[in-house]
Amino acid sequence: MRIDVVTIFPAFFDVLEVSLLGRARGAGLLDIRVHDLREHTTDRHRTVDDTPYGGGAGMVMKPEPWALALDEIAAAGHDAEDAASGPLFVFPSPAGERFTQSLAREWSHEPHIVFGCGRYEGIDERVFSYAATIGRVRLVSLGDYVLNGGEVAAMAMIEAVGRLVPGVVGNPESLVEESHEDGLLEYPSYTKPASWRGYEVPDVLLSGHHGRVAQWRRDQQVERTRMRRPDLLPE
Ligand code: SAM
């Protein structure tokens, strides 16, 4: 899978060198390229923002550098002229649809995703319309709160998607039983020692009885979800 990131702070993505994703990059499973939006400015000050039309506080990211950056990336990765076969452009935004595990799974099959990280009050709205002429566009929110920029959101999405790409996580079975994969939160996990500072591992997990363990875990999933995230359960 190829992933491009456009940002005014490329250093945010240095951590993609480490851990599982770093290893996946080294193994050629993930081709991640980070681009500095300022490289696509044409003025001496490398300006990427300007005042908003209609007034108001803050600055808005100018459309011209974005179009140049997206054009270059789309041209490098795709021969086709039509938007449907172009890259998937993901613009993190608190005003977007919510990012979920099912979206991460869907995107893990994409050959090419481009993340466009906004700053200030966001990106000129016309950039999204333009991007839709050379690829597919999604505006996606990490959650119902406001971050300073799209970098942290893009990083979270890259990690959630990247770990689902075949081969990135060594044991694919460990991806199946996780929270949100079947609509529920995951059951509690324990490791050795069985007794620690007066806290005991539940007896059923020491029983060696696979059926009872499976039933206990399922019950825990439902109970946890009911307590912590009742919104995930059907009416
Ligand atoms: N004025 C915008 C609004 O109210 O919708 C918020 C702009 S925010 C300060 C700057 C950038 O941070 C956004 O363009 C977006 O890229 C990113 N961002 C902030 N919160 C986010 C969230 N919850 N999910 C994804 N991206 C977010």
TrEMBL record:
InterPro entries: Alpha/beta_knot_MTases (IPR029028), tRNA_m1G_MeTrfase_C_sf (IPR023148), tRNA_m1G_MeTrfase_TrmD (IPR002649), tRNA_m1G_MTases_N (IPR029026), tRNA_MeTrfase_TRMD/TRM10 (IPR016009). It comes from the Bacteria. It holds the Pfam family tRNA_m1G_MT. One of its GO terms (biological process) is methylation. It catalyses: guanosine(37) in tRNA + S-adenosyl-L-methionine = N(1)-methylguanosine(37) in tRNA + S-adenosyl-L-homocysteine + H(+). Homodimer. This is tRNA (guanine-N(1)-)-methyltransferase. It comes from Microbacterium aquilitoris.
